[in-house]
Amino acid sequence: MSVTSALVSFAVVAALLTIVPGLDTAYVLRTAIVGGRRPAFAAAAGIGTGSLAWGAAAAVGVSALLTASTLAYTALRITGAAYLVWLGVQLIRETLGRRGATAAAPEPTDSDGAWRAWRRGVLTNLLNPKVGAFYLAVIPQFLPEHAPHLLMGLALALVHNAEGMLWFTALILGAHAVRGWLRRPVVHRAIDRVTGTALIGFGLKLAAAPR
Fold first, then answer.
1. How far apart are CA 62 and CA 135, in angstroms?
2. CA dist., res. 29 & res. 198, Å (int)
3. What is the mean pLDDT of residues 111-130?
4. Least CB-packed of 34, 55, 135, 200 within 10 Å?
5. CA 55, 60, 63, 64 torsion: positive or negative?
6. CA-CA distance, 126 to 117, in Å (whole number)?
7. Cβ(126)–Cβ(47) below 8 Å
8. Angle, alpha carbons 13-195-179 (nearest 5°)
């Protein structure tokens, strides 16, 4: 398999994974609605940063630990689940504090909102062992025999990131187009409660998963 054919073949697989609704999509969409385009793109970049780390780890075999060691996998799974539940509870608690609000949700400071969104995007991705398991299972199949594995793993992850950014850009611009309506207090609270509940659900599902 040549480098070009490996990249093209992986792009097809990664594209299918990208458009399947999941935690990354929910997080970026919610950030776009509440924080605006800059924090949403920062969240997408954070998710991409995490994917690059997983891609490099899978290429050099580091993430094999997740498959070989039940203890390591379980520790990361529980940590990730706890983090998702914590995020969900925080969102729901904030909506209870805004119950009587009549004005639109306040705009976060751009720099602070973008930095926080990026950091949460990175953590959300890195603390999901199923992302690592996917990269471990898929990336080695697209590593040409004579290509440097670390560089090739990063290249494959970059292909996935590029497709992810195209998908996230469409979501972010779409959400921005109707953001005025979505940021109405009643709608805003409903979005945060639905997103918070989804995060808690993802966390509990992750905690309960045997592998």
1. 11
2. 13
3. 80
4. 200
5. positive
6. 14
7. no
8. 90
As a whole number of angstroms, the distance between CA 12 and CA 69 comes to: 30
What confidence tens digit (pLDDT) does each residue in 52-80 have? 888 887 777 655 555 566 776 677 667 76
Which residues make Cβ contacts (< 8 Å) with residue 32, sequence separation at least 6? 39, 40, 171, 172, 175, 176, 179
> At which residue do the structure tokens 């979005």 appear?
191
Locate tokens 């990269």: which residue?
135
Within 8 A by CB and 6+ apart from 81, the residues are 203, 204, 206, 207
Which candidate, 130, 135, 154, 134, places its Cα nearest to that of 7?
154
